């Protein structure tokens, strides 16, 4: 990881890392996807990578106080970046990307970097990783297998239609196909058990 992003990564890990489906490993996968997509789509890594590293820093606040993590995370990220002397010209775009990354948000990404962060976050909810995270999340919430399956149908099967960039669409196609194949097989196996 680039030296200028290491301090941001350390702060993100200390601030927002929760074990489980939204752990710091999720943040690092999103940042890696942002790097891949951003390079192909001509994004500014000085905006994109900090936004990716900081996008879930307020997850604990959401669970604890019910505040939307994208709103609180944008506020905390801005405060942190200003305290470190990060380029002030880039901070508003980083904050905007964090504020608009969430699938359920009413605010939509307005910049290429914000679109890529939103795409990368969605991609990490798809494919094999998305399947694993969904079952982890169901367990975290005290749910059962059916709760995870419901989540696939309520959200994950829709994600491929909501990515913004060509690169993310290409990645999403493969992950979506894997997800639908998994659900087909799971349906077959559970039908045989009845």
Helix and strand layout, with pairings?
Elements: H1 3-16, H2 24-41, H3 45-54, H4 59-65, H5 69-84, H6 91-99, H7 112-123, H8 127-140, H9 145-154, H10 166-193
Helix pairs in contact: 1-3, 2-3, 2-7, 3-6, 3-7, 4-5, 5-6, 6-7, 7-10, 8-9, 8-10
In brief, what are we looking at here?
The chain is mainly α. It has 10 helices and no strands.
Verbal overview:
The protein has 194 residues and is mostly helical. The protein has one domain: Hypothetical protein af1432 (Orthogonal Bundle). It has 10 helices and no strands. It has helices at residues 3-16, 24-41, 45-54, 59-65, 69-84, 91-99, 112-123, 127-140, 145-154, 166-193. Helix 5 runs antiparallel to helix 6, helix 7 (112-123) runs parallel beside helix 10 (166-193) and helix 8 crosses helix 10 (166-193). The longest helix is centred in the last third of the chain and has 28 residues, at 166-193. The radius of gyration is 17 Å and the shape is globular. The mean pLDDT is 91.
């Amino acid at each position: 990881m680039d030296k200028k992003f290491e301090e941001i990564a350390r702060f993100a890990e200390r601030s927002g890392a929760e074990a489980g489906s939204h752990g710091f490993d999720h943040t690092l996968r999103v940042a890696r996807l942002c790097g891949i997509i951003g390079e192909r789509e001509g994004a500014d890594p000085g905006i994109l990578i900090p936004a990716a590293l900081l996008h879930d820093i307020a997850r604990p606040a959401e669970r604890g106080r019910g505040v939307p993590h994208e709103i609180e995370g944008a506020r905390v990220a801005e405060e942190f970046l200003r305290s470190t002397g990060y380029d002030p010209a880039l901070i508003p775009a980083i904050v905007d990307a964090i504020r608009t990354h969430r699938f359920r948000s009413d605010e939509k990404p307005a910049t290429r970097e914000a679109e890529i962060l939103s795409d990368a976050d969605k991609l990490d909810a798809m494919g094999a990783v998305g399947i694993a995270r969904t079952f982890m999340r169901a367990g975290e919430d005290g749910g059962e297998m059916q709760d995870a399956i419901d989540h696939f149908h309520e959200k994950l099967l829709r994600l491929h239609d909501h990515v913004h960039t060509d690169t993310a669409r290409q990645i999403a196609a493969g992950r979506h196909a894997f997800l639908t194949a998994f659900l087909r097989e799971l349906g077959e196996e559970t039908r045989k058990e009845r």
